[in-house]
């Protein structure tokens, strides 16, 4: 299968490109810079120059492919406005890709975060939130799944709070960066809130399986660790960086404060049974031991 991938040079995307190529697929990857194009070529894929906001380029990429995996996101959490702009840019891209694939019966895999369920781990049957800082993303992904009624084999792989590799990535990576800058490995509140996690190489396998197998309109959970308390995550970060570990106000994290403070364990029982996915790479707490001071 020839697969058009957005976000193919990021932590997750580079793992996905390698996973696809290693399983007999060819890859056309969106590349927004010369450096990204060179990275795509070095990985053995073909670059398509353009950014996520270049909707005509996205249409061209979808037209050249047998399937699409969308991973690109601006990841600008510097302010509520920046986050809203990132969500709006992605929403327009998803709508464009979906329209290009309508009526083709081709697979279209996108990603979101895992949802929150009160008092229990969330499951694949729980809806995505449509309010809050990233509610717009939930709306856009739900529209992608609705394309199942319009001749698109659409699916969504829900990624946990942290997708990690070699001690970097995800919200745990943000905590590490903040600890380096502030000299304190902080956690909001009492730190008992739980974050699910997955290794990037395991997430890449699930994204490939969704492309190849997922029925139209289905959601899947790329969750290996159901939920680590944030204070445990902060403790490893503090030890590796040799900085104190302390509770800090949620406001320390700006627009991410409410998200960082939420207890959000998540299950992948259905995903494992239905798609035969079995994570095998290091857990988050094990992988954080790779942090360099």
Concise structural overview:
The protein has about 290 residues and is of the alpha/beta class.
Give an overview in words.
It comes from Actinomadura barringtoniae. With 293 residues, the protein is α/β, with parallel strands linked by helices. It folds into 2 domains: 190 residues, NAD(P)-binding Rossmann-like Domain (Rossmann fold, 3-Layer(aba) Sandwich), CATH 3.40.50.720; 80 residues, no CATH class. 41% of the residues lie in helices and 20% in strands. It has 11 helices and 12 strands. The protein has a 7-stranded parallel sheet with strand order 3-2-1-4-5-6-10, sandwiched between helices. β1, α1 and β2 form a beta-alpha-beta unit. The longest helix has 22 residues.
Which characteristics define this entry?
single chain, 293 residues, alpha/beta, Rossmann fold, 7-stranded parallel β-sheet, 3-stranded mixed β-sheet, 11 helices, 12 strands, 20% strand
Nearest-angstrom radius of gyration? 18 Å
Percentage of residues in helical conformation = 40-55%
Shape: globular
The end-to-end distance, rounded to whole angstroms, is 42 Å
Please identify which CATH superfamily of the largest domain we are dealing with.
Answer: NAD(P)-binding Rossmann-like Domain
Total strand count, please? Answer: 12
In total, the number of domains comes to 2
Please state how the strands of the largest beta sheet are arranged side by side. Answer: 3-2-1-4-5-6-10
CATH class (first level) name of the largest domain: Alpha Beta
CATH topology of the largest domain: Rossmann fold
The CATH architecture of the largest domain would be 3-Layer(aba) Sandwich
Provide the succession of SSEs. EHEHEHEHEHEEHEEHEEHEHHH
Estimate what percentage of residues fall within beta strands: 15-25%
Mean residue pLDDT: 96
Oligomeric category: single chain
Low-confidence regions: none
Count every helix, treating DSSP H or I runs of 4 or more residues as helices.
11
Task: Please describe the biggest sheet, giving its number of strands, its sense, and whether it closes into a barrel.
Answer: 7 strands, parallel
């Amino acid at each position: 299968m020839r697969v058009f991938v957005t976000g193919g040079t990021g932590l997750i995307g580079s793992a996905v490109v390698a996973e696809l190529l290693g399983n007999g697929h060819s890859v056309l990857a969106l590349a927004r810079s010369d450096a990204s194009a060179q990275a795509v070529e070095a990985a053995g894929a073909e670059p398509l120059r353009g950014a996520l906001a270049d909707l005509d380029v996205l249409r061209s990429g979808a037209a050249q492919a047998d399937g699409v995996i969308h991973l690109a996101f601006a990841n600008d959490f510097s302010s509520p406005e920046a986050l809203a702009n990132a969500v709006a840019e992605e929403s327009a891209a998803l709508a464009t890709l979906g329209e290009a694939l309508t009526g083709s019966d081709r697979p279209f895999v996108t990603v979101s975060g895992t949802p929150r369920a009160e008092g229990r781990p969330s499951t694949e049957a729980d809806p995505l939130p449509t309010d809050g800082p990233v509610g717009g993303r939930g709306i856009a992904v739900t529209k992608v799944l609705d394309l199942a009624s319009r001749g698109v084999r659409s699916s969504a792989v829900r990624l946990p709070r942290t997708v990690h590799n070699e001690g970097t990535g995800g919200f745990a990576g943000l905590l590490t960066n903040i600890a380096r800058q502030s000299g304190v490995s902080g956690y909001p509140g009492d730190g008992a809130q739980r974050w699910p996690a997955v290794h990037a190489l395991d997430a890449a396998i699930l994204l490939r399986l969704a492309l190849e197998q997922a029925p139209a309109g289905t959601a899947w959970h790329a969750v290996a660790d159901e939920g680590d308390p944030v204070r445990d995550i902060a403790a490893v970060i503090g030890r590796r960086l040799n900085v104190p570990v302390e509770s800090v106000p949620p406001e320390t994290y700006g627009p991410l404060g409410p998200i960082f403070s939420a207890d959000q364990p998540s299950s992948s029982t259905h995903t494992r049974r239905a798609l035969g996915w079995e994570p095998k790479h290091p857990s988050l707490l094990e992988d954080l031991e790779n942090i360099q001071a």
